[in-house]
C-alpha cells in the first residue's frame, strides 16, 4: 500500500484529465487498457460496447469480477484540469469515478506485485455507460449471455470514495424524451397557431398533480426542456426529458402511465385551439431495474466481515449504480467505494481527498481474496 500511494494518485489524475462523457469514453479506455497491459494482466481487450476487460488467471475458469465505470457527466468539449488545494484534488469526475478507477488499477497492481495466486480467476473491467443516458449499457453488455456471464461467481462494483456504504439494492428509474412539433410561425401575424412550448407547459402542470408516495419513495423530475429559436417566433419544435424513480417497479409503472396520460392530454389541450395540430413523439430513453441483492449473500457476508476486521462502520443502502444489472440477474454483487473521501459529485468543484484510500483498498483486497480463495503465495499462505 505504501509503495502505491503516489502511483495511484498520478493514475487518478491522468485518467480524470482525459474527457470521458457518456458514449465518448474511448480515449480514457485506451489508457486504462495500456495500464492493464503494463501490469501484466492477460487477454486485455475492448468488447463491442467499449468496455476494457483484462484477466488475472486463477486455478479455476470461474471468476470474481471487479468493475469501475469510465464515464463522467462532464459535457463533451469541456477541458478538465485537476488542481490541488489543502491536500485535496479538485476536478469534475475526480471522485466519481476517478476514485473507483484508481482502486481498480490499485488492486490489480498490488496483486501482481505480491504474486498471490488465487483459486478463482479475477476479471478487471473498466466499463462504459453508467452515467445519465448511458442506461448502464456497458454493464448490460458485459452480463449479456456469453462467456463472462457464464463465468461470474461474484462482482465488486467500485464507485466513488466513501467506505461507509454498501449498496445492496438498485434504485429503479425510467426516463422519457417528449418531442412536440408544429407548423411554427410569426408571434404577431400567426398568433393563435398551436405552440409546442405551450403544450409542454400544459404537460408540466399536469405532471405536478401526479401523486407520489413517500413509501415506497417515488420521484418525478423534468430535468431538461428546450425549444424555439426567437422571442418573436412561434416555435416549430420543443422537447423535454423526464425522470421517474422509485424503489419499487410497480410505482415506476404507475407513474409512467400517468406521465404518458399527462403528455397526451397536455398536447391535446393545445391542439384544440387550432386546426393545424401538433405532432407528438414519446420515447423511453432509459430504464434501470429496481432490484435487490438476493439473500443470503456470501459476498455481503465477506464484505461485512472485512469491515469488522478493519474497523469500518458501514451501512447498507439503495442507490442507482452499475450494480442494478447484476442484482436484476440474481448475481452475487455489491457496490462499494475505492477509499478516501469526496464531495460535490457531478459539479465543477467536485473534490477528492486521498487520506484513507489505504483503508478502501484493504477492504477491496480482503473481500476479493476471500471470495476468490488463495491457492499459493510467496509467504506460504495456504488455501482460504
Mean of pLDDT? 95
CA distance, first residue to last residue: 22 Å
If strands are numbered along the chain, what order do they take across the biggest sheet?
Answer: 1-2-7-3-8-18
CATH superfamily of the largest domain: Zn peptidases
Structural class: alpha+beta
Low-confidence stretches: none
Specify the biggest β-sheet.
6 strands, mixed
The CATH architecture of the largest domain is: 3-Layer(aba) Sandwich
Shape: elongated
Q: How helical, in percent, are the residues?
A: 25-40%
Count the DSSP helices: 10
| DSSP E strands, number | 21
In a nutshell, what does this entry contain?
By secondary structure, the chain is α+β, with helices and mostly antiparallel strands. The protein is built from 10 helices and 21 strands.
Structure description:
Helix 3 packs across helix 10 (357-372), helix 6 (196-207) packs antiparallel against helix 7 (249-271) and helix 8 crosses helix 10 (357-372). This protein folds into two domains: 2-170 and 290-376, Zn peptidases (Aminopeptidase, 3-Layer(aba) Sandwich), CATH 3.40.630.10; 172-288, Alpha-Beta Plaits (2-Layer Sandwich). The longest helix has 23 residues, at 249-271. The strands form six sheets. It has a six-stranded mixed beta sheet with strand order 1-2-7-3-8-18. It is elongated. The model has no long low-confidence stretch (mean pLDDT 95). The chain contains ten helices and 21 strands. Strand 4 and strand 5 form a beta hairpin. It has 384 residues and is of the alpha+beta class. It has helices spanning 5-16, 26-38, 98-114, 137-142, 147-151, 196-207, 249-271, 298-310, 324-329, 357-372; strands at residues 42-46, 52-56, 60-69, 83-85, 88-90, 117-118, 120-127, 152-158, 165-170, 172-181, 185-186, 218-227, 233-234, 237-246, 279-288, 291-292, 315-319, 333-336, 341-343, 351-353, 374-376.
